[in-house]
Amino acid sequence: QEQLVESGGGLVQPGGSLRLSCAASGSIFSMYTMCWYRQAPGKQRELVAIITSGGSTNYAENVKGRFTISRDNAKNTVYLQMNSLKPEDTAVYYCEGNNYWGQGTRVTVSF
């Protein structure tokens, strides 16, 4: 059974950066399309970024140009580099692949 473990969240000031990581335990990680989602307090979970097994990416409009999704198949890990963070990026961030979900990592953007 696949397990996904996120890390890298924390408190950052507006304009700052964070890099989230999602480590997968399975042996066929490289075959999966991987996604990052987020859920802000009182809001529905939303798709933030997606990366296919071939490395094609797509982003939500409100993070384009600021966030970058990448993957390292040798390490079974997908990343989300977040730059120019805004208070509205505050949320719990989850990775998902092949319908498996991580437990989430909290990102707070505030002074």
Report on this structure.
The chain is mostly beta strands and 111 residues long. The chain contains no helices and eleven strands. It has strands at 4-7, 10-12, 18-24, 34-39, 46-51, 57-59, 67-72, 77-82, 91-97, 100-101, 105-109. Strands 2, 4, 5, 6, 9, 10 and 11 form a seven-stranded mixed beta sheet that branches. The chain has a four-stranded antiparallel beta sheet with strand order 1-3-8-7, with no helix packed on it. Strand 4 and strand 5 form a beta hairpin. The chain starts with a strand and ends with a strand. The model has no long low-confidence stretch (mean pLDDT 95).
Proportion of residues in helical segments? under 10%
Major sheet summary line = 7 strands, mixed
- Counting copies of identical and different chains, the oligomeric state is single chain
Count the beta strands: 11
Strand content: over 45%
Q: How far apart are the first and last residues' alpha carbons, in Å? A: 40 Å
Number of helices: 0
Order of SSEs: EEEEEEEEEEE
Pairing-aware structural class of the strands and helices?
mainly beta
Which word captures the global form? globular
Radius of gyration: 13 Å
Overall pLDDT score = 95
| Uncertain ranges | none
List the helices and strands and how they pair.
Blueprint lengths: L3 E4 L2 E3 L5 E7 L9 E6 L6 E6 L5 E3 L7 E6 L4 E6 L8 E7 L2 E2 L3 E5 L2
Parallel strand pairs: 2-11
Antiparallel strand pairs: 1-3, 3-8, 4-5, 4-9, 5-6, 7-8, 9-10, 9-11
